[in-house]
Design brief:
By secondary structure, the chain is an alpha+beta fold. It is built from twelve helices and nine strands. Strands 1-4-5-9-8-7-6 form a seven-stranded mixed beta sheet, with helices on both faces. Strands 2-3 form a two-stranded antiparallel ribbon. Helix 1 runs parallel beside helix 4, helix 2 (about 30-40) runs antiparallel to helix 4 (about 60-95) and helix 5 (about 115-130) crosses helix 11 (about 320-325). Phenylalanine binds near residues 216, 291, 293 and 316.
Length: about 350
C-alpha cells in the first residue's frame, strides 16, 4: 500500500472520532451547523480527503471509495443525533422554566361605561324609527335654555331647575330641550331627532348628581298629535322593559309643552302584600321615567313656525334613571365614583 493511500485511510478514519470529540464541547445549534460545514461541507474535511482519491492507483480506489461512503454515512448519523439531542435539551429547558402555578396575565381591555351603553341602547331604538341623532352645546344661553322654551325671566320654573348661572346670560344647560329650538331654527319640518347629552343642575344627594344625562326627542310635522307621542313612548318602554310593561301617562306641567305628561311604569320591586314601603317606588307602585308633551305654540312662535300648519311632540328621558331601573342600581352616585368593581360588572353588556 502506498504512503498516499495509507494517509487517506488515516484521514478518513480520523474523521468520526474528531467529530465526536468536537461535538462534546459545543452546545448551540449554530456551532453544530458550522461544525457540519467544516466536516461535511463542499470544501470540508471529508470532501478534501475524497479529492485525494484522484491521485491514487486505480486498484486502490474501490477500497477507499467504500471507506469514504461508510465514514460519510456515519458522520451524517452522528450529526442527526446531535441535532435531535439539542432539540430535546431545549424542550426540557423550557419545561423546567415553565411554572404552571404562576397567575395568568390578565388583560383588561376596558369597556363602555354603563351610561354610554344605556344611551346607545336608547339611541338605537330611535335610529331604527328613522330619527336623526344630534347634539347641542352644554354651555348655553339663557335664551335657548329658558326664554325660547316659554320660561320667561323671573318665572319660578327657572328656580325649579337649580341652574348653574355663568356670567352675562350664559348658563350650563339644565336640560336638553334647548336643542329643540336650535334645530327648529335651522331646519324646516318634517323633523324627527333625538339629542343625547349632559345636563347640569345644582343638586347632589343619592338621587341627584350635579351632572347627569338626558335624551331629548322631538317630532314636528303636519298632523302630529298626542297618539303619535303615546305610541312612540309605548314602543320605547316596551323595547327597554319588555312587552308587558305597564305604562301610565300622568298629566303634568312643562312651560314648553301643552298638554304635558309625566310617564310612569308600574313598579317591579314591590308586590301587593308588602308591609314596608318599597325601596324603588316608595310605596306609590309607580316609577317615573320621563317627561313629555305636545310642543307648545309659544315655542313654535319663537322659531317662526306656523302653528296652524305644524304640530309636534317632545320628550325628555333621564338616562341614569333608566340605567338604574334596568340594572336595579340603588345609588346614583355609583355611576361617577369610577370604582372598577362597579363598572366592570357591566363590561359585557351589549354595546
Ligand atoms: N326638559 C324637561 C326636563 O328636563 C323634560 C321634557 C322634555 C319635558 C321635553 C317635556 C318635553 O325635565
Amino acid at each position: 500500500m502506498s504512503q498516499e493511500v495509507a494517509d487517506i485511510i488515516k484521514e478518513l478514519e480520523g474523521l468520526v472520532p474528531e467529530l465526536v470529540s468536537r461535538l462534546e464541547r459545543i452546545s448551540s445549534q449554530d456551532e453544530i451547523e458550522s461544525l457540519r460545514i467544516d466536516i461535511l461541507g463542499r470544501k470540508g474535511k471529508l470532501a478534501t480527503a475524497m479529492a485525494m482519491l484522484g491521485k491514487v492507483p486505480a486498484k486502490d480506489k474501490p477500497l477507499l471509495g467504500k471507506l469514504g461512503n461508510k465514514v460519510k454515512e456515519e458522520l451524517h448519523t452522528i450529526f442527526e443525533r446531535a441535532v435531535e439531542e439539542q432539540e430535546e435539551r431545549r424542550e426540557e429547558e423550557y419545561i423546567r422554566s415553565f411554572d404552571p402555578t404562576l397567575p395568568p396575565r390578565y388583560r383588561y381591555h376596558g369597556s363602555l361605561h354603563l351610561i354610554t351603553s344605556t344611551i346607545n341602547k336608547i339611541t338605537t331604538i330611535f335610529k331604527d324609527l328613522g330619527y336623526a341623532v344630534i347634539s347641542g352645546p352644554e354651555v348655553e344661553t339663557e335664551y335657548y335654555n329658558f326664554e325660547a322654551l316659554n320660561i320667561p325671566k323671573h318665572h319660578p320654573a327657572r328656580d325649579m331647575q337649580d341652574t348653574f348661572f355663568l356670567r352675562d346670560g350664559v348658563v350650563l344647560r339644565t336640560h336638553t330641550s334647548p336643542v329643540q329650538v336650535r334645530t327648529m331654527q335651522n331646519h324646516t319640518p318634517p323633523l324627527a331627532a333625538i339629542v343625547p347629552g349632559k345636563v347640569y343642575r345644582k343638586d347632589s344627594d343619592n338621587t341627584h348628581t350635579p351632572m347627569f344625562h338626558q335624551i331629548e326627542g322631538f317630532v314636528v310635522d303636519k298632523g302630529i298629535n298626542f297618539s303619535h307621542l303615546r305610541g312612540t313612548i309605548m314602543h320605547l318602554l316596551q323595547k327597554l322593559f319588555g312587552e308587558h310593561v305597564i305604562v301610565r301617562f300622568r298629566p303634568s306641567f312643562f312651560p314648553f309643552t301643552e298638554p304635558s305628561a309625566e310617564v310612569d311604569i308600574s313598579c317591579f320591586g314591590c308586590s301587593a302584600g308588602d308591609k314596608e314601603p318599597c325601596r324603588i317606588c316608595g310605596g306609590s307602585r309607580w316609577i317615573e321615567v320621563l317627561g313629555c308633551g305636545m310642543i307648545a305654540p309659544e315655542v313654535f312662535r319663537s322659531v317662526e313656525y306656523d302653528t296652524e300648519v305644524y304640530s309636534g311632540f317632545a320628550f325628555g328621558i333621564g338616562v341614569e334613571r333608566i340605567a338604574m331601573l334596568l340594572h336595579r342600581i340603588s345609588d346614583l352616585r355609583l355611576f361617577y365614583e369610577n370604582d372598577m368593581r362597579f363598572l366592570t360588572q357591566f363590561a359585557s353588556i351589549e354595546e
